[in-house]
């Protein structure tokens, strides 16, 4: 692996030439975000920003999923450990702000479910290619949390406010065709074409005149920065508060129990 690539185990940065592929790499957990992956997602953008060889980035997930949101053990620790919760909220804020400020095009290759933070990562990217079998969802409210790390920040910029309210307040899934219609995805393609399509566009964008490309993205993202800046402080403070409430712990315990029962039934029938 050369100096332009990295492998933390849970986050891979690979590629040569002007395009890098950033892959969330916890395929057995549908790339659910644990403590290590959360930290890597906050740190990865600075290195790619400062690498003059890199002209564009493709963001995707290993295996069948893009990202299933927060890992249950990780969320449980955020809920029960106040110091860890404070650090995690600061890190979550940095994931959002680093991605918005990143000067090079980010193409999301949504190869499977994009849930919670995973959905936010996709919607905060510059162009989204989505598998026809994938879906998006933000179940923060269903779990008893404020949808701070992207949903409440970015969804109203991609769709109407009425639609954003409906999907964030219910946590309902958004299938690929609906996501494209609402403005959360640019292109819906067969599963096998998601990554090649994203790479093709990334190479095309990386070949554009560098300063014109970056400053145009910067100008466009000034709209995003202004909108996010109006709500980000309240949103993360409110999410931190709901992490500490008994309601969240009850919902998380219930979800974990239901998932374990489902896994046991699946194992018994196999």
UniProtKB/TrEMBL annotation:
Gene3D superfamilies: 2-enoyl-CoA Hydratase, Chain A, domain 1 (3.90.226.10). GO terms for molecular function: catalytic activity. InterPro entries: ClpP/crotonase-like_dom_sf (IPR029045), Enoyl-CoA_hydra/iso (IPR001753). It holds the Pfam family ECH_1. It comes from the Bacteria. This is Enoyl-CoA hydratase.
């Amino acid at each position: 692996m050369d100096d332009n690539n990295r492998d933390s185990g849970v986050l891979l940065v690979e590629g040569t030439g002007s395009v890098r592929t950033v892959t969330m790499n916890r395929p057995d957990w549908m790339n659910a975000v644990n403590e290590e992956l959360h930290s890597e997602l906050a740190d990865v953008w600075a290195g790619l920003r400062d690498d003059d060889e890199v002209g564009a980035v493709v963001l995707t997930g290993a295996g069948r999923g893009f990202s299933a949101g927060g890992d249950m053990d990780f969320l449980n620790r955020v809920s029960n450990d106040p110091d860890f919760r404070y650090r995690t909220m600061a890190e979550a804020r940095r994931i959002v702000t680093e991605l918005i400020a990143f000067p090079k095009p980010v193409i999301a290759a949504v190869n499977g479910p994009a849930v919670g933070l995973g959905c936010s990562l996709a919607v905060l990217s510059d162009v989204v290619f989505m598998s026809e079998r994938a879906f998006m969802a933000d179940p923060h409210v269903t779990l008893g949390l404020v949808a701070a790390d992207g949903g409440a920040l970015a969804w109203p910029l991609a769709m109407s406010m009425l639609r954003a309210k409906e999907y964030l307040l219910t946590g309902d899934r958004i299938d690929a065709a609906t996501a494209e219609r609402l403005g959360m995805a640019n292109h819906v393609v067969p599963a096998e074409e998601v990554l090649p399509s994203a790479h093709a566009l990334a190479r095309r964008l990386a070949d554009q005149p560098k300063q014109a490309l970056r400053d145009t993205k910067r100008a466009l993202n000034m709209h995003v920065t202004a909108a996010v800046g109006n709500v980000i402080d309240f949103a993360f403070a409110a999410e931190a508060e709901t992490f500490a409430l008994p309601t969240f712990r009850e919902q998380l315990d219930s979800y974990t129990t239901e998932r374990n029962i489902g896994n046991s039934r699946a194992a018994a029938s196999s």
